[in-house]
Design the sequence.
């Protein structure tokens, strides 16, 4: 299952959430991803990993539930469960809840040199088309924050998303086969998600 943490180096409440995500980084069955947003960059420190695209993704999640506001830290589990990013007990409950859901979509990845081969099937077939997203991330990075609310603090981030692109749509009726060129050595994650953005139906990682 996928856990997305929306975080910021300029947010004093985010380091505990970053630490919580770090404990998930290598947990079997979980793909934990850290998306740095730029909403606090005006507070004296511009997040070195922030991307406006990640802020837009968080806002899209908010709109999907009828809200106009976003906050950090926020975790979204499976595309549907929204919790405060440092709330460990809430996270454990949501992980247990998602782990009990039967998998409807099967997804397999094979990395072969500079190519990623993607195969997916749905049983039963899906009623609506879904998005196929490619995510790349840096496994970890440590840096000193010299401004803003976390000034003087050394922070370590894990699974820092560097790219999140939609690479295809899929009708979920016939088997999917995609072949995508990969640049660089970063791990790659493929996510199959309902529109909205909504529930994540499948995700897999190629290191």
Sequence:
């Amino acid at each position: 299952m996928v856990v997305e943490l929306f975080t910021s180096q300029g947010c004093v409440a985010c380091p505990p959430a970053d630490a919580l995500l770090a404990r998930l980084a290598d947990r079997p069955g979980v793909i934990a991803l850290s998306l740095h947003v730029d909403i606090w960059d005006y507070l004296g420190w511009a997040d070195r990993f922030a991307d406006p695209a990640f802020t837009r993704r968080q806002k899209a999640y908010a709109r999907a539930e009828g809200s106009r506001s976003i906050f950090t830290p926020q975790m979204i589990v499976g595309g549907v469960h929204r919790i405060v990013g440092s709330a460990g007990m809430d996270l454990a409950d949501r992980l247990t809840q998602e782990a009990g859901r039967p998998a409807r979509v099967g997804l397999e990845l094979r990395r072969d040199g500079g190519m990623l081969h993607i195969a997916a099937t749905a049983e039963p077939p899906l009623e609506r088309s879904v998005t196929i997203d490619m995510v790349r991330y840096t496994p970890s990075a440590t840096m000193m924050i010299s401004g803003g609310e976390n000034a003087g603090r050394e922070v370590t981030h894990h699974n820092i998303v560097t790219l999140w692109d939609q690479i295809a749509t899929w009708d979920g009726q016939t088997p999917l086969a995609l072949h995508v060129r990969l640049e660089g050595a970063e791990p790659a994650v493929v996510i199959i998600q309902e529109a909205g953005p909504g529930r994540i139906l499948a995700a897999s990682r190629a290191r």
